[in-house]
Design goal:
The complex is a heterodimer of chains A (107) and B (121).
Chain A: E1 4-7, E2 10-13, E3 19-25, E4 33-38, E5 45-49, E6 53-54, E7 62-67, E8 70-75, E9 85-90, E10 97-98, E11 102-106
Parallel strand pairs in A: 2-11
Antiparallel strand pairs in A: 1-3, 3-8, 4-5, 4-9, 5-6, 7-8, 9-10, 9-11
Chain B: E1 3-7, E2 10-12, E3 18-25, E4 33-39, E5 45-51, E6 58-60, E7 68-73, E8 78-83, E9 92-102, E10 105-111, E11 115-119
Parallel strand pairs in B: 2-11
Antiparallel strand pairs in B: 1-3, 3-8, 4-5, 4-9, 5-6, 7-8, 9-10, 9-11
The chains are: A mainly beta (107), B mainly beta (121).
Chain lengths: 107, 121
Amino acid sequence: DIQMTQSPSTLSASVGDRVTITCRASQSISNWLAWYQQKSGKAPKVLIYKASTLESGAPSRFSGSGSGTEFTLTISSLQPDDFATYYCQQYKSYPYTFGQGTKLEIK
Amino acid sequence: EVQLLESGGGLVQPGGSLRLSCAASGFTFSSYAMSWVRQAPGKGLEWVSSLTGGGGGTDYADSVKGRFTISRDNSKNTLYLQMNSLRAEDTAVYYCARTLRQLWLGFFDYWGQGTLVSVSS
């Protein structure tokens, strides 16, 4: 199975900050990676797919990059609505696997 | 508008069975692979199972293989998850998710609101 490891697990930041979350795969997944945002008690929503393609309707302050085994999700200027938990997910091979999540908290 | 509505969750004893349903609307159901993803209380996301649009291809996480069965009725736009021999560790919110395939596999572009399954005596 492909293991996905996110860092950090928790991130404290302020409105207006630029933040970056990292996701590493245990083997190359090319660019078959998605990023999701999940707010407490709600279903996840996809933000980015194929490592860097912004999902329709997702705010342009979100961007993704990387290929192979190392990927990043960047929020260019944090908004109050962005405080949530973020997950990466690989879809290179079964079983689909997710990172353990990064909780973005208000500083 | 794409909508996915899960039902069928509840409290069940260890060793028991439960069938989850996911009613889909707003898209051509038979054209899309569908999946179940679960989330244990306070934990992260775990993929459970996926099924191709025609229903002929299935895949399961090792943790549920042999106990869970995914199926679909394209005439009713409904996805199912039959869960047998339930264990305490199956306790989770179960989400159905539309799977947008790119090449062979895909990502989850729409999710239902989830249904809670609790396994306890």
